[in-house]
Write a structure and sequence with these properties.
It contains eleven helices and nine strands. The chain is α+β, with helices and mostly antiparallel strands. The chain starts with a helix and ends with a strand.
């Protein structure tokens, strides 16, 4: 299904020419993908982290899978809670200043924070979806707004241990858990509140342009907390990066879902 000219012009604003997954960015951001999603596979995951998924496959209990994931992440990335065997002849084990859990908290408190910049830069690099807003609109990579956004990313990613790899695995674990929670579904109904109604239309139907990573809620009343204009979205499971109950002490509040951006058909509910 080829996008219409009006949709192509919107996709050009939202996508980059390259990404590191199996679906090109213009397809991933399109209305066709929203309606007919396919699995998203990040490059190199099975090659670099096979042992994690070997352990998950043989575990039938969702809560135990969370423990497996947390333990693996702690040891693999030398996080503060990791139980690493001491070696008297070795230097102290360096601990990263930031990690995926701190980034989740940073996003929860303020998606335009330095932590939010890390999240959005990760989405750009992995999925090829452009950051079009961080504190302010970002027109292109030559703008002052983009420079400030990259400075925020650099501050938050300094002295860390492969944050990109950590977020890769968090996304893959989220997809693994969603597949078990909703084995017969491809979409979830989510809501997004703002101060403005959708500005764009495709074939005379309102569409919402989401930033490359945005927050939605599964509770319509929670969505109203973020603005009086609330829309209902059918979000592909594959475009959910994290959700409120995925991890203990993760996104606890507002029934929040972190959703990859693009063009979405939007049903007005106000």
């Amino acid at each position: 299904m080829l996008p219409l000219p009006e949709e192509r012009s919107l996709l050009a604003k939202l996508t980059l020419p390259l990404n590191r997954c199996n679906v090109p960015a213009p397809v991933l951001a399109s209305l066709a993908y929203q309606q007919y999603p396919v699995s998203l596979q990040l490059d190199g995951i099975e090659t670099f982290y096979p042992e994690l998924f070997e352990r998950l496959v043989v575990c039938p209990d969702a809560r135990q899978r969370v423990d497996i994931f947390n333990d693996y992440m702690a040891v693999r990335f030398r996080l503060p809670e990791a139980q690493l065997a001491p070696r008297p002849d070795a230097d102290p084990v360096p601990r990263p200043q930031s990690h995926y859990r701190k980034l989740l908290l940073g996003w929860l408190f303020d998606s335009d924070s330095d932590a939010g910049a890390v999240w959005r830069q990760w989405v750009e690099s992995r999925f090829g979806l452009r950051t079009v807003y961080h504190h302010q609109p970002i027109s292109d990579s030559e703008s002052a707004a983009y420079l400030r956004y990259m400075q925020a990313y650099a501050r938050a990613s300094y002295q860390t241990n492969d944050l990109v790899g950590q977020l890769d695995l968090l996304y893959c674990f989220c997809q693994y858990q969603l597949a078990h929670l909703y084995p017969l579904q491809q979409h979830l109904t989510l809501y997004r509140g703002s101060t403005e109604a959708p500005k764009y239309q495709v074939q005379q139907q309102p569409v919402l342009l989401l930033n490359n990573l945005s927050s939605c809620s599964s509770d319509v009343d929670e969505a109203y907390r973020f603005g009086p204009k609330v829309v209902e979205l059918q979000v592909p499971l594959t475009k959910i990066v994290c959700f409120d109950t995925l991890l203990p002490r993760g996104l606890n509040g507002e029934q929040e879902y972190m959703v990859l951006g693009g063009i979405y058909k939007a049903k007005q509910v106000w």
